[in-house]
Amino acid sequence: MTTAAGTRVPQEERTRLMRARLLEATVDCLVEHGFAGTSTTLVSERAGVSRGAQLHHFPTKNDLVVAAVEHLTAKRGEELAAAAARLPAGTRRTRAVLDMLADHFTGPVFSAALELWVAARTDETLLAAVAPLEQRVGRETHRLTVELLGADESARGTRELVQATLDLVRGLGLANTITDDARRRGRILDRWADVLDEHLGKELR
Amino acid sequence: MTTAAGTRVPQEERTRLMRARLLEATVDCLVEHGFAGTSTTLVSERAGVSRGAQLHHFPTKNDLVVAAVEHLTAKRGEELAAAAARLPAGTRRTRAVLDMLADHFTGPVFSAALELWVAARTDETLLAAVAPLEQRVGRETHRLTVELLGADESARGTRELVQATLDLVRGLGLANTITDDARRRGRILDRWADVLDEHLGKELR
């Protein structure tokens, strides 16, 4: 079983890539077919990975899905960080931050996460995997939003306004799964940007 | 098939009650087992209705679930109207309205609705049943909230703030499915009540 250092690295790299392909395919399947419609067969087909190799890495749907929770968490963090880096500076910064968050919460990674959240509601094993990572994502997204808005959390009520902003976009994301809601969402975010600017500005003074 | 008027009414009533029992059991199953875990067998057992009678009224899971969408819509309207009738008057009215909405969006009927929304995301037949009723519930909840808050929708930005309030409680409801979130939610709603009082009050002046 011992291999020379020179060949072990490529093998590890191949394993890492195959796992990543399987997890990426799991996320795609969750988006397209939902949690119930996602099967290990469908995932291995989509990933272009043999059934044997898939079963070696993830013997059950549960193994696959629990690993996909972690993969998706990392993916959400990367997506938000990349979008944050593209944000313009200037006066409509707040509105641009809200747009960025709304894009994230109405995109495919939100749909995949939503499938996992709702499945976890009635599946204890999945919940045990989802809950701690969700808390981590929540904290990181909060910290990023505070930073992007230039909010001062030591000011009374600021922390709660930032939290409310994230719950608002989560609610908008959920609404958007039923009907395309872009126009209504745009008007709500315009209004909320005004409220945030006023309150955060006032409290920073 | 013609029956005397005197016996037709009880028969119709029995049918109505049996359908209601089946739909109520469907909602309970959605809350406890999720959409994927809800089967016609489980529903007929829980309703105490024979398999034959259940299949007569709702031949497939899809028939049952589509009918449950309508039943749940009515149930949500009744729950909100009853809670609205119990609301206290007075200065903390806004906070009480938010509590009422948050209770609704973190309760079992929200969980059942969430299961249907998410299943409808990847199921066109279900989506066709869910989308128009969801729009109706949305409009009715909006109207009720405007009335309870005493908001003047002719004032600029008021409509959007009320909409944001409903999206916020929807987002809080979704967060609460993963972790019990009551303390955080309480602080956010305190803050939101202040924002609403200030903005709605200002614009009514």
UniProtKB/TrEMBL annotation, chains A, B:
InterPro entries xrefs: Homeodomain-like_sf (IPR009057), HTH-type_TetR-like_transc_reg (IPR050109), HTH_TetR (IPR001647)
Pfam families: TetR_N (PF00440)
DNA-binding region ranges: 39-58
Protein keywords: DNA-binding
Residue span, HTH tetR-type domain: 16-76
SUPFAM superfamilies recorded: Homeodomain-like (SSF46689)
Name of protein: TetR family transcriptional regulator
Organism, scientific name: Nocardioides aquiterrae
